[in-house]
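*** Protein under study ***
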Amino acid sequence: MSGRITLGEIFREEFRDVISLARQAPRVSIPLAGSSLPWAILAGLGAGFFIAAPVRVLASLLYSVPRTTELQPPTVPELGTIAATACAFAVAWRAGGWLAAEGYLAFVAFERVLTIPRLIATCTDPRLAGVGSPFADRCTLGGQLIALWPVATGGVLAFVIARALSRSGGSTNGTLEAAGGLVFAQALWSPLTDFVLVRTSSSAPDVTGFTVFNLGSALTAGIVAGLLLARRSRWAWRGFAAIAAVVLIQFVWFSLRTLLASLAYGADFYQIGGVAGLLGFGAPLLMLAAAAVVLATSRRQIAAVHA
């Protein structure tokens, strides 16, 4: 008998009461295809992609109302992280079992590891010397552990969300997997930000480098999403429309609104980064265009093979 303790057993032991409460809740069946480990992890990432954007937009709308209390609720990014983690963990778990859930958490840990060089550069930046919270707290181990509370909260909520998911007779979760591939491709580009965004105190921001990074990340993510939609989704163009809706919601509400606000407050062409800055704002549109072209091309190739 193996003495290995899995992450699933640890979670079941630590959150036994939460699991018991979730089992007593009414069950709403949302079908989800069972899949192998890599596809289940991608499906989880895709579920987080689809839920995070609406939550962030809704939270930013609510936070625009003046506060009448000193209570500090979670920030917009924290709420997005909670929702994305809860849905991603639950979907990966239902689609591929506990190993897929562990794989999703491994991806989260991988993302954190990739941010270490940037964190070190930020904490050693002389411009931030003497600056108090939140910068000082982020430079300690305790501060980094506390910053993980949205992930932990989402992991607990996943037990409740998983009750609404059931195995279907389908063979793939194509749209979720394509969205997950998009997220994964962008994550692999994140180490390049250390060469683009992290600079010494005497350096000015490299707008051109930042734009190249954004466009490269968007192009890669679009190609991956288009390929997965073509090969894994039964309703590929519907899946593309769903992904495009999420991308455009974020683009219009955050990126485009910021650009228009800058122009309204008197920012000139060079203050927004010139040509490079404008191209950088269009990275999400490039991603959708790349996905559409790859999807259309791949579908024609697949149709020709089966003809």
Observations:
- The chain is about 70% helix and 5% strand.
- Residues 172-307 form one domain.
- The mean pLDDT is 80.
- The longest strand covers residues 30-33.
